[in-house]
User: Fold these one by one.
Assistant:
Number 1:
Amino acid sequence: MIELYISLALILLLTIAIGLVRVLRGPTATDRMLAAQLFGTTAVAILLLLGQAGGNTAIWDVALIFALLAAVAAVTFVRRKDIDTTTET
Amino acid sequence: MEPALIFDLVLLLILIGLAWLLLASTDLFRAVVLFIAFGLLLALAWVRLGAPDVALAEAAIGAGITGALLLVGLGRLGSTERCRFSRAPLTFLQRLSAPVLVGVMIPSISLILLLEVHQLAGTTPGRQGLINAFLDVSGSGHGVTAVLLNFRAWDTLLEKGVLLLALITIWSLDQARPLFHQEDISPQLMGLARLLLPLVIVVAGFVLWQGDQAPGGAFQSGALLSAGILLAILVGYSLPQRWQGLSLRLLLAIGFGVFLLIAAATLLYSGYPLQYPEHLAGSLILLIELVATASIAALLAAAVVGGHPPDDLSTPAAKAPSTSGRR
């Protein structure tokens, strides 16, 4: 079972690697930011799988914090005063 | 190959690649987003290294504060400074400098690491046994907390001092200016904040409390709370004017101050600073952690706001912790 959990986590990690293309290519600032947001969700899933594999509940606390704070960077992004979110950066 | 080993290798490769990309990025916004992703993956790496305490701190700092801090900083730069990377053709020496630097750095760092790893193989597996042997008298049930607040409490005391110094430096530079539009706050955002803020405060309390038995503690909890304060500022809460004077400064300094007082008291009592009497160790650690959490939360949030509270009473300003009353 442990192998299965780690393998699933590995697949999720690879999706992050693929998602990085969106951060690198953009074209708009919003594209980049939303890709990073999606990484946050994926990281929560990876942490839950790793916690299940290792039997360490402290890892779930890390996932909990990521889930709680995922919104903070995005809210900062939309509430900033002076960055145009639609044009290409 | 085992899946765990492949996972670690892929994680390592992505981390190194990300670090390279974000340092080499000429687009500062892209660099900020890459840094947020880097923080996420770094927390995963700490988990894989079996250091959930560090992973918790990295998660709270990386997801909560750093991203917001960098985005706010980027906004402050203005459009002219953001495009300061000129496209002018490089001179011959400039072209040469990067390969030479990389060519010297990578072999030397690899050599140092190889030598270190070679030495590691012959030593004992850390100080786990020693710490566990003295855990009973430390006043804490968790090894990392025992090290941070008892065995090596000096380091933690100085760390609190460094945070305070950093904020004093920030405050000496500028006056805080409003960071965000205060007029157009959407109802969804308000609703999100009203749902999230109580949760963040409860989880921060939980993380602080379980530091006695499991990964957690003052820094993680304080970082989480500061993200909560930041969220509150983002949806338009601000610290009332009457709290911005002495009370805010007291809150910022109380963590370091109480820690220092305890160091002085133990020096007089036992002859050594921060050598707690055995029956009081648990209570003292709890006291230090409580005040440190409040100070760390306020310090980090004030660092994001950037600048001291305005002296002029007529200008309203978005200023740090709106949650001080709730704490």
Number 2:
Amino acid sequence: MPEAVGTTELAGDLVIRAAAVADVPAVTRLDSRITGMTKPDYWADMFERYGKRPNRFFLIAEGEGAGVIGFIIGEVRAWEFGSPPSGWIFALGVDPTARLNKIGSRLFEAMCGRLAESGVDMVRTMLARDDELNMAFFRSQGMMGGPFIQLEMSLYGFAGGHG
Amino acid sequence: MRLQQATRCALFAVLELAQDPDRQISAPDIAEKYGISANHLAKVLRDLVRAGLVESMRGAGGGYRFSGNAKRVTLYEVVHMFEDIGSKPGGRPEGGDSSDIGRALGQVMNEIDETAVSTLKSITLATLLKLIHRNAAGQAGSRSKKDSVNA
């Protein structure tokens, strides 16, 4: 049964900080509640790749007495099909019961601040077209359609492909 | 992409009213501000009242007031009231649809439709109002830069 959205009001301060290895189990649990899939290896690998290196940011939202209630991950990418260095956000999660407390906005602002400090002046993301929740969130933060377009095709029939 | 006249009237009216939900504005005032037909707007406003997005205030100083939730209502909901945007495959078939060319063209048209629908669904009235304010602030900023260069 889906969790009731926005039922928790934060009692105290919200802290946005860099993730530590000790946060990985809590992030794994939170992601599992949001997506319905538990992926401990994936999140351990994400921390290794994005929690420890320059120009890569794995941030946590921690509520007073509530533990980890949100996360965001981003990095600086450069020269993909001619794109000058720009920030990329590719993961965002907020505890469904704690939504409507501006946790996503605080995480997004913190990420934009870190990306700007890294010297880029543009931030991008890519979402599923039908992901209305995240699409509306990023739009509400001021993001607009950009000059790049995502393309894909099935690899069915290629060597090594299934089928 | 061009929206139909009724849709444009509705978006102008809803967004004008949503900028200040406490303010009442008459239909002729909205029509004059945006250069749209007052008759057309009156019909559109009736539909918006029925949908619960605006309310009609009677009496002296009456007019219309925004009564929806700007953080929840998306552009798609307003547009969809007045035109069939992003019509799904399976609608009335047209000549050539089932040919190889027709099917391939249909795939491309569907991609465009789906992008348009998801864009409109992702933008709430509140988000569009923010964009309007950002644009205005940007214009004011570039004007003051120009003024200081010219000074």
